[in-house]
Amino acid sequence: MHWEYLDENRKLIFYVFRFDLSDGIKEILPLTLWQNKKTGALEWRWKAYPAPRPLYNLHCLAGHPDRPVVVVEGEKAADAAAKLFPDHVITTSPGGCQAAGKTDWMPLKGRDVIVWPDADDPGIKYRDDVARLAHAAGAASVKILSIREGKPTGWDAADALAEGWTPE
């Protein structure tokens, strides 16, 4: 799978690719455009975008300034949450649960924000980091969805959609 990170004007910034390996491990790699220092040529590299990194769906945040925002962990979960919250803008930060602090959260200024954490310890850490960073960016409000009891470790919006959840 892959996801495009676009700016406010829908211009491509970089990609994130997810590879599901045969042993059940996933590998998530950013693909970014860099200028070769020797030749000056632009080249795609498997390298993280420099901090501060933009939010996923930045163009949707810009295009729908009055909609509430749902923050999830990861692009796959973001795409699933978009189907479950059609009247919201869904976003995430690139780099996973360890990289929330490397992201520009200022587009959340003045917005009502809901954080949907993954059902695991990294999800809880990400939830807390996002809540703190959204407040610091000036979010109008930050609410946190509670983790559903009885769900397997790592359960998220993509799992909810796979279970048949609907916007209703």
What does this structure look like?
The mean pLDDT is 96. With 168 residues, the chain is an alpha/beta fold. The strands form 2 sheets. A 4-stranded antiparallel β-sheet has the order 1-2-3-4, with no helix packed on it. It has a 4-stranded parallel β-sheet with strand order 6-5-7-8. The chain has helices at residues 58-63, 75-84, 121-136, 157-162, and strands at 2-6, 12-20, 26-35, 42-45, 69-71, 89-91, 112-115, 141-144. The longest helix has 16 residues, at 121-136.
Topology of helices and strands:
Blueprint lengths: L1 E5 L5 E9 L5 E10 L6 E4 L12 H6 L5 E3 L3 H10 L4 E3 L20 E4 L5 H16 L4 E4 L12 H6 L6
Parallel strand pairs: 5-6, 5-7, 7-8
Antiparallel strand pairs: 1-2, 2-3, 3-4
Characterize the overall form: globular
Q: Average the pLDDT over all residues and give the rounded result.
A: 96
Biggest β-sheet strands, sense, barrel? 4 strands, antiparallel
In angstroms, what is the radius of gyration? 16 Å
Share of helix among residues?
10-25%
Q: Which secondary-structure class do the elements indicate?
A: alpha/beta
Supply the key terms.
168 residues, 25% strand, 8 strands, four-stranded antiparallel β-sheet, alpha/beta, four-stranded parallel β-sheet, 4 helices
What is this entry, summarized?
The protein has 4 helices and 8 strands.
